[in-house]
Structure formats: C-alpha cells, structure tokens
Specification:
about 10% strand; 6 helices; globular; single chain; mainly alpha; about 150 residues
Length: about 150
C-alpha cells in the first residue's frame, strides 16, 4: 500500500484559499441573483444552458451532463422551476418515454433581466482584480484540471 502524498504547505494554503474563494463567490453570486431577480445561481445555470441551445430546449440527460448534477437534483430543481413557469417539459416525438426541458418566455425574460447585474457582479468580484495574463493562466489551469476530470469520468 502506498503512503499518502500529503500536500506541502504551499499546496495546502493554495487549496484552502481556492476552496474559500469558490464557496465565497458562489454564495455572493447567489445572494446577488436572489436579491436582484429572484433567481438562484442554480436557476441561472439551467437558464444559461437553455439560452445557449438552439430552440431553447435540451433533453434532461444533456442538461444533467452539462451541469454535472445528480439526476435527482436535476429532477427536483426542474420541477421547482416548472412550477414557477421558467421551464416546461415537452414530450419527445421520437421517443415516447423521453422529454425535453424547454425555456419558456418567462424563463427567457428572467435571465435577460438578471444577466446584466450578474455579469457586473462577476466582473466586480472576480475579473476586475486580474490582469489579462492571470485570466489566461486561469483558463489554462482550469482546462488542465477539467481534462483530468473528464478522463477520470471515463
């Protein structure tokens, strides 16, 4: 059995700072969205994926994959969004058991209203502190870690 490869002091500080940053950003963005638009950060994520898709519709498994959520979480969240009129489910003509998650006019209006303030908050809390070189480094690091995660999922 191999001995654990413990993080050194620099890695430990960097990892804990990253975790605090990620949690703090998520909480601040969620608070801003709730206050400004009544949307949660999870609502916003669902709506972004639908607005980025031609026709504003996705199969649930596509949404699950895009968000990296458990099926039960997605199902419960979509039910709450459906009750609020942000999305609807439509039957799939090709697959009698299948369905689509479809963006409603109310959902489109909600994200169009929320997006400008949300993006400004992202800029203010995150990007305004970074140089273009740091943004490029962040993208490179994120892409590397995501590639490792994608490989681990297979």
């Amino acid at each position: 059995m191999n001995a654990p490869r413990w993080l050194d002091d620099d890695q430990q500080r960097a990892w804990r700072a990253y975790l605090r940053m990620q949690a703090g950003l998520s909480a601040a963005l969620n608070r801003q969205l709730q206050a400004a638009s009544g949307l949660s950060l999870a609502d916003y994520d669902v709506l972004v994926h639908l607005t980025d898709t031609p026709g504003g519709r996705l199969r649930p498994y596509e949404m699950q994959r895009a968000l990296d959520w458990e099926q039960s979480r997605l199902s419960h969240h979509l039910s709450r969004m459906q009750r609020r009129g942000l999305v609807e489910r439509q039957e799939c003509a090709d697959d009698g058991r299948g369905a689509f998650i479809v963006l409603t006019e109310a959902g489109r209006s909600a994200i169009e209203t929320a997006a400008p303030d949300h993006v400004e908050t992202v800029r203010r809390l995150f990007f305004d502190q970074l140089t273009p070189e740091q943004v490029a480094t962040l993208e490179e690091l994120s892409t590397r870690v995501l590639a490792r995660l994608d490989g681990a999922d297979r």
